[in-house]
Amino acid sequence: MKKENVSTHQKALQINLDQAKYGTFAEIGAGQEVARWFFRVGGASGTIAKSISAYDMIISDAIYGHSERYVSRQRLVTMLDHEYRLLTDRLAAQRGDTTKFFVFSNTVAAQSFTRREDWHGWMGVCFQTEPRGEPSQIIMHVRMWDKENVQQQEALGVLGVNLVYGALYHHGDVNLLLKTLVDDLSIDRAEVDMIKFSGPAFKNVDNRLVTLRLVQDGLTNAAMFTADGEVVQAAEMLYKKPILVERGSFRPVTNVTLDMLTTAQAQFIQEPGVQGEEIVVLMEMTLKNLTDAGEINHQDFLDRVDILGALGKGVLISNYGAYFRLASYLFRYTKKNIGIVMGVPSLREIFDEKYYADLEGGILESFGRLFKNELKLYVYPLRDAATGSIITARNVRVAPHLQHLYAYLIENNYIQAIRDYKPEYLPIFSRDALAKIKSGDAAWEQMVPPQVAKIIKERKLLGYKSAPELQEPVAAR
């Protein structure tokens, strides 16, 4: 469906004039900016059953129960469930046959006298698509980038109206719903870095694809989900934890992919700041990793994450081409050790100054942003195809005028050569394995871990074709 251009005012008014829609607004923090829109445009009595702001924590606990964190997914879900139950219990008998009930809730930490940074919030909507039908639900996490409280409140109001409107009128087209979330806004003001759809209206929606669309459509620069496909907000997974991340296309995961990770992890866990800590391991795919001939094949993407999920790996999808931008993203959530696993070709790219033309400080500025908070690069070796020589982080060549800089990073262990790797894996490249998978050449099975081969064959992933059976000619009689 084509994206429509409907203003926030028009959206709120349309909902108010729709006699079949009726609901509750429950908002904590940053005022009642979403409900305000519906009162402002007129006709709110046709839409709003109740508007509430349980701003005081004691009052909030008395209504919704105690919560360890008031700005959290848990608090949002509790609010939605509580208010939806009240709404339907009290009004279903009188108007349940003709009304599609909904509840909108948010809990937000905006700019204040005591909070000078990390402005974010959770918002969601629980709604019926038909009278007396089972409810569906959308919950999402937003980050606010405006510097002033009033601007943040305005952005929240617009975003909330967009969410309610999208749920009520675009639930049949999730892609369109996503595109309209930031109508009258931009990612410079509000970023949606997590969203989850559930319930009968979204029974055919794969939230992993939705996570990809968030990045692809520019609603956020990075989003993630766990090995079992559960979408998460970054802080839920990364907060104050050491992180080890490997970037790749994973098309497919090969023996090299896992050897890179296991050998790097063996060195990472020996760092003083990591010992005894719970490590988060992420497999990162950038949009560039996912793009083929200018397009992203969604089934191909799902094939890859199915394989990673079978290996128990969480997935981070990002639009961060430069590693220092990935590092800045991770630094939001932890000051603990961060390790980035890469091969020699990626290390060479990091030292290519053409990638930093947009930075005033060039490569030095990028490295200043990258090598903070105990971040280290763990570099897997490469066998030179022409000579057979092994190139490691210790002997790789960089531009002559960068050699002293490189030596400094090596000497201070910011860049570490991966040890104890398996030399027999060095000839393996994922592109070769993929070509063999698609051609029916069974040799690919020796290039990937057994569990990867099993899932590819069972589910026929990545264009898998079984090896052609050899037919013996029938003997002449």
How would the blueprint of this fold be written?
Elements (H helix, E strand, L loop, with lengths): L7 H10 L3 E8 L4 H9 L6 E5 L4 H8 L8 H23 L4 E10 L10 E8 L8 E9 L4 H21 L4 H7 L9 E9 L8 H10 L5 E4 L5 E2 L1 H5 L4 E5 L7 H14 L11 E7 H4 E2 L2 E2 L1 H13 L3 E5 L4 H9 L6 E6 H7 L11 H9 L4 E6 L1 E2 L6 E2 L11 H9 L3 E3 L12 H10 L10 H10 L18
Parallel strand pairs: 1-2, 1-3, 9-10, 9-14, 10-13, 14-15, 15-18
Antiparallel strand pairs: 3-4, 4-5, 5-6, 7-8, 7-13, 11-12, 16-17
Could you give a quick summary of the protein structure above?
The chain is 37% helix and 20% strand. The protein has helices at residues 8-17, 33-41, 57-64, 73-95, 149-169, 174-180, 207-216, 234-238, 255-268, 287-290, 298-310, 323-331, 344-350, 362-370, 403-411, 430-439, 450-459; strands spanning 21-28, 48-52, 100-109, 120-127, 136-144, 190-198, 222-225, 231-232, 243-247, 280-286, 291-292, 295-296, 314-318, 338-343, 375-380, 382-383, 390-391, 415-417.
Rg estimate, integer Å: 26 Å
- Could you give the distance between the termini? 65 Å
| Form type | globular
- Derived from helix and strand composition plus strand pairing, the structural class reads alpha/beta
Number of DSSP helical runs: 17
Name the CATH architecture of the largest domain: Alpha-Beta Complex
Largest sheet: 8 strands, mixed
Which stretches are low in confidence, meaning pLDDT under 50 for 5 or more residues running?
Answer: 469-477
